[in-house]
Amino acid sequence: MTQTLRLEPVRTLTHGNAVFSAAFSPNGKQIATASLDNTVRLWNLSDGEVLTTLKGHGDGVCFVDFHSDGRIVTASLDRTLRILSADGSQLLTTFIGHQDYLTCAAIARNGTLLVSGGFDKTVRVWDSQTELNVVVWTGHTENVQCVAISGDGKTVASGGDDQTIRLWNVESQSVSKVVMGHSKGVEGLAFSPDGTLLASASVDGSVRLWSRTGEPVATLEQIPVLVKSVVFSPDGRWLVSGDGIGTMRVWDTANLQLVLTAPAHKNSIHDLTFSRDGTHFASAGFDRTIHVWSVVEKQD
C-alpha cells in the first residue's frame, strides 16, 4: 500500500489586495495573513471571523509569522520588520535597515534570530531579543526574493533574481556555498524539518532538492510555469509547491513521487504553510484569497 495526501477545503478568507503570506499560530487556533493592502489580519480558524486587523505598515506586507511564544512578526515593502504582541494590540519593536523594498523574511524556530532580504540585494540577520541588526550579508547581484532558516538556526539560505542560492553559516557569519543550477530567478526556499534537505522553487518552472551543504539531490517534475512557493510538512513526509497559475503539487519525499495536483487559486500562489501539528494547511494567492484546508492522509 502507498500513502497519499488529500486536502479538503475548510474555508476561504479574503483581503483587499494580493495576499503574500500566511501563518498559523502556535496553538493552531488562529491564522494570520499579510497583504498588499498594507494590513495583516488575524482570523479565528474555527469560524473564519476577523479577530483584528493590524495596520501601521506604509506599504504592502510581504511576510507574517509567529514566534513560538505567540508574538507576531511582520515584514513590509516599506523596508521595516515589526514585532507585535500575540493579539496584535501592541507594537513591541520596529527593525529598520533595508535600503530598498524588503521582500521576504523568516523566523528561527529555535532561538531569537530573524532574517530578511530585499531589493537592496542584502540579507540581514536580526536578534528579536536584543533588537539588534546582527549582520548584513552581501553577495547577491540582483534582488533577494526568498530566505529560509534551518531548524537548528545554524544555516540561512537565500535566493534571488541572480539565479543563485546562497547558504550562510550563522556562527561564522559568512557564506558557506553559492549554489547554482536554476536557469532563472529563485522565488521560494524551504528546509526540511530535520534540516537535511533544502527545496527551491524557481521562475524556470522547476522545484529542486539540495543537501544541506548545497549538493544537488533531485529535480522534481518540470512545470511549464513559474513556481513561486514551496514548503515541507512538519513531519517532512510531504513537499508542496505553488505555481504562477494557481496550482498546488504535492510530492512524497520518501520516493519523490507526485501524489496530488490541485487547482487552488486563479493566479500566483505566493505562500504555502502547514499548522504546526500538520492537521491544517493554507495557501495564499495573488487573487486576494487564502484557502484553508484540512490535511487527510490515507492508505491506497
**Low-confidence residue ranges:** none
Topology, number of strands: 28
Mean pLDDT: 95
Strand adjacency order, main sheet = 1-28-27-26
Radius of gyration: 17 Å
Question: Roughly what fraction of the amino acids lie in strands?
Answer: over 45%
Helices, by number, come to 0
What oligomeric state is this? single chain
User: Which structural class matches the secondary elements?
Assistant: mainly beta
What is the terminal separation in angstroms? 5 Å
Binned, the helix content reads under 10%
Large-scale geometry = globular
Main β sheet profile: 4 strands, antiparallel
Order of helices and strands: EEEEEEEEEEEEEEEEEEEEEEEEEEEE
Write a structural description.
The protein has 300 residues and is an all-beta fold. Helix content is 0%, strand content 58%. The strands form seven sheets. Strands 1-28-27-26 form a four-stranded antiparallel beta sheet, with no helix packed on it. β24 and β25 form a beta hairpin. The protein is globular and about 50 Å long.
